[in-house]
Structure prediction request, 539 residues.
Amino acid sequence: MARRHRTLGLIIAPLPLLAAVAIAANATPSSQPRVVVPGSVSPALAHSHRGDAVGADQQMSVSIPLKLRDAAGLDAFLTQVNDPKSAQYHHYLTPAQFTERFGPSQGDVDKVTDFARSAGLHVDSVSGNRQVVTASGTVGQLEKAFATTLSGYQDSIGNRSFYANDTAPQLPVDLAPIVQGIVGLDNHTVRHRHSVSRPAAAPAGFGPTQLRGAYDTGSLGTGAGQSVALWEFDGYQQANLSGYAKQFGLTPSASTTVSVDGANYDASPGEGQGEVELDIEIVQALAPAVTTYVYEAPNSDQGEIDMANKIATDNKVSVVSISWGACEPDRSPSEMDAVSNGIKQGTAEGISFFAASGDDGSKDCARSQTGATVDAVDYPASDPNVTGVGGTTLKLNGTGYGSETTWSRGGGGTSTHFAVPGYQAGVNGKRTVPDVASDADPATGYSIFSAGAWQVYGGTSCAAPMWAAWAALADAKLGHKLGNANPTLYQVGKGANAAKAFHDITTGSNGTFRAGAGYDQTTGWGSYDGAGLAAALAG
Prediction:
C-alpha cells in the first residue's frame, strides 16, 4: 500500500459557526440518500476542545475498510478449525482461499473505488485481500465525499493537538452496508508500547538460561523451521541484537524488516527502539533458531489496519507477537473491527496471535482522557482471536521455577466491545482478558541489550513474546500450527492436566480484580510450564 502523508497544520481557535458546518456537510458528490457510518468518530471528541476548521486545501488520505462476506459462516469456520472434534480441525485456508470465500467481492471493491473517484479522490491502493481501499484528496474533497467537517482539537490530558471529523461520516445508502468504517479522518489514537525499563551497568535480569529453566522449555528444541512476526511501530539496530546474542552464546539468524505503508525506522529508530529490540531478543532467547520478521508500520489507525492485513496476506509466519496497544474506550469501533478482520484472516490461515494486556492494571485508560477511574482493557489483547497475555512477578528456585504472583500493573478486565467467545464464560456476555500470563515485573525483569547499552525491562511487552516464543517451539514440536491458541488453552485449563501445563497464580491483584484458583482476570490460566503444556496439547 502507498505510504500515507499528512501535513495538516492545526491552530486551535474559537468554534466555527454551526451554520457553516451544516452547509459544508450537505455538499455531497451524490444525490442518493445518505446514512451514517457507525463507529467512525473518535471517542476523544467528548473530552477535547474544538478549534478552527482544517484548511480545505490540505492533503490527506483515508482507509475505507470493507466488511467481510458471510460473517456468521466465518465465525463458524474459525470455531471448527480449532475444534479437535471437528472435521475442519487444522484445515487452514490459504490467503487466496480466504479472500475467495470470505473476503469482500471485487464488485464491492469496485463500488467503493467508483464512489471515491466520483468524489474527486485518488484511489491510491487496494489491499491484496480486498479488505481495504486507500484514497487521498484535499480536506475539502474528503469533507464533501463523507458529508462531514474536520476541525483541530486540543487533548487537554495528553497536552497535544489533533484533528478529527466533527460528526459521523455518511455514505450513500447502497454503499454503506458493505463498508466497515471510514478510518483516517482523525489522528488521535496512538499505540503505546507496554514496557518499562531501567539501565544496568552489565547484563542483569533474566537471560535465556533463567527463562528456559523457569518456564521449562529446554526439551522443546530451538524452534528450527518456524517463523514469528513482530507487530511494531518503531525500528531496531542489528548491532544490538548481535550484542545480545554474543553475550548469551546464541546464533540466531538476522531479523528481516517488512515495511508497511513505506515505514522503515531502522536507519533512525525512535523512542520505541527498546520495545522492538526486546521483542526480538526475548523470542530468540527461548527459540534461537526461529526466523523473525519485523513488520514496521506508521503509528496510526491506518498503519495498524494495514499491518494486520499485510501479515495475513503475506502468510509467512505461524505466530505473531504484539506489544503495542491502546485502551478500548479511546479507539473507534470501526478501526478495531477492521483490524480484527485482518486478524480473523490470519487465524483462518493458522496464525497464532499473542498480545500484551497493558501495564496500568484494570484501569487501562489511566494515561488518557478516559481516565484512571474507568475499568478498561487493551486492544488488540481483547480480540477473541488473540491470546491476551497478562503479567506476573517471577521468583526463581535456583535456575528453575520458584513461584509467581500477580504483577499489580498487569492489564485485565472485561471488554466493552467484543462479545464473549465460545471458549470463555465471559462477564455479562463480553470477552474477558487476559487469557494467560508471564513475568512482567520490572523488579524481576529481563536482561535486554538496546541502543548500545544493557537495560532491565519489564511490562507485559515482555510477557507477549515469551508466549509467542513458546508457541513457535510448540509448533515445531507438534508438527502443526496452533492457530488461535485460546480454545485449546481453555480446554487444557479446565482439564485433568492443568496443573502440569500451567503455573496457576492465585495471589495478588491488578486493581479491581484478584487472582484465584483457575481462570481469573489478572493472569488468566497462569504462566506456562513449556514442556507440560506442549505435552497436554499433544494429548
Remarks:
- Residues 460-478 form the longest helix (19 residues).
